[in-house]
């Protein structure tokens, strides 16, 4: 199975997909030191986004999302790639700043929420052009 996502921030991503079932706020929702989802009301509370292809059905806005993403990248606890139905400029800003600082950053792609959910738990590889290939 292969899907095509729109490239938001280029790069190659790979790993197991964690498709969140609800939008999340990175500020107060994700621990930047551990990569754990810490929002007590979020259904995926306790799961780690570190090293995962993180599929976001939406974001709960906060201008601090960029800072949290920057901290995740710096701590080595960032996702390996981001999938989102619409670009979130604030979250992507954190990745852009980390890239400008010379750090390894996750690429980001636009992919519909329904397609994201279908990938949950699958191991995928995402090419520079946005082609998503499911392993096995």
Walk me through the topology.
Layout: E1 2-4, E2 6-9, E3 13-19, E4 53-55, H1 65-75, E5 81-84, H2 89-100, E6 108-110, H3 113-119, E7 123-126, E8 131-134
Parallel strand pairs: 3-4, 4-5, 5-6
Antiparallel strand pairs: 1-8, 2-6, 3-7, 7-8
General description of the model:
The protein is an alpha/beta fold. It is built from 3 helices and 8 strands, in the order ββββαβαβαββ. The chain has an 8-stranded mixed β-sheet, with helices on one face. Helix 1 packs parallel to helix 2 (89-100). The model has no long low-confidence stretch (mean pLDDT 95).
Rg over C-alpha atoms, rounded to the nearest angstrom: 13 Å
How much beta, percentage-wise?
Answer: 15-25%
Structure summary, number of beta strands:
8
Largest sheet: spatial strand order: 1-8-7-3-4-5-6-2
CATH topology: Glucose Oxidase, domain 1
Supply the CATH architecture. 3-Layer(bba) Sandwich
Number of helices: 3
Largest sheet: 8 strands, mixed
Please tag this protein with its features.
globular; alpha/beta; 22% helix; 136 residues; 8-stranded mixed β-sheet
């Amino acid at each position: 199975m292969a899907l095509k996502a729109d490239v938001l921030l280029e790069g190659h991503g790979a790993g197991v997909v964690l498709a969140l079932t609800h939008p999340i706020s990175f500020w107060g929702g994700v621990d930047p030191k551990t990569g754990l989802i810490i929002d007590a009301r979020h259904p995926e509370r306790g799961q780690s986004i570190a090293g995962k292809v993180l599929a976001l059905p939406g974001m709960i806005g906060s201008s601090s999302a960029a800072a949290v993403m920057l901290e995740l990248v710096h701590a080595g606890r960032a996702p390996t790639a981001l999938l989102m139905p619409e670009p979130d400029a604030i979250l992507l800003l954190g990745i852009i700043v980390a890239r400008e600082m010379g750090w390894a950053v996750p690429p980001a792609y636009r992919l519909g929420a329904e397609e994201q959910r279908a990938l949950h738990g699958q191991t995928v590889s995402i090419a520079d052009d946005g082609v998503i290939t499911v392993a096995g």
